[in-house]
Design a protein that fits this description.
Homotrimer. With about 160 residues, this protein is an alpha+beta fold. It is built from 5 helices and 7 strands, in the order ββββαααβαβαβ.
């Protein structure tokens, strides 16, 4: 077994929606990011890569490369999971926490779980996504952005 953890944040900027867990969520702001800014998928990629000591998302998809400008983060996730499978591992389960004051995540969590389970060729009961606020504390509490923590467990096939 291998365990990995990932963490990512993105600040809010101009926009009319955010991408989170591969789901387009209506919001009066967007994320400031080189890609689509999907902070949940970015943290998940880091957790997967970290479990096998393969570096981080920035190493594999540098934000200095025009190749990844505006890219759908699900494309990155599928690529990362290919690296995991190539090394003989698969997802046993993942657990994540989205830290956001707004928008409310609960209406979107089941859809995010479905999308991520599909991209990781897994059953939905292996994909845990929770959400919390920071009680108006810090940059999340002041609605300046969103942070996500992810932990994964990989097993060798």
């Amino acid at each position: 077994m291998r365990i990995g953890c990932g963490y990512d944040v993105h600040a809010f900027g101009e926009g009319e929606h955010i991408m989170l867990g591969g789901v387009k969520i209506p919001h009066h702001k967007g994320f400031i990011a080189h890609s689509d800014g999907d902070v949940l998928i970015h943290a998940l990629c880091d957790a997967l890569l970290g479990a096998l000591a393969l570096g981080d998302i920035g190493k594999h998809f540098p934000d200095t490369s025009d190749e990844y400008k505006g890219i759908d983060s699900r494309t990155l996730l599928r690529h990362v999971y290919g690296l995991i499978k190539d090394r003989g591992y698969r997802l046993q389960n993942l657990d994540s926490v989205i830290c956001a004051e707004f928008p409310k995540m609960s209406p979107h969590i089941d859809h995010m779980r479905e999308v991520i389970a599909e991209d990781l060729e897994s059953k939905i009961d292996k994909v845990g996504i929770k959400a919390t606020t920071t009680e108006k504390l810090g940059f999340v509490g002041m609605q300046q952005g969103i942070a996500v923590h992810v932990t994964v467990l990989l097993i060798n096939e």
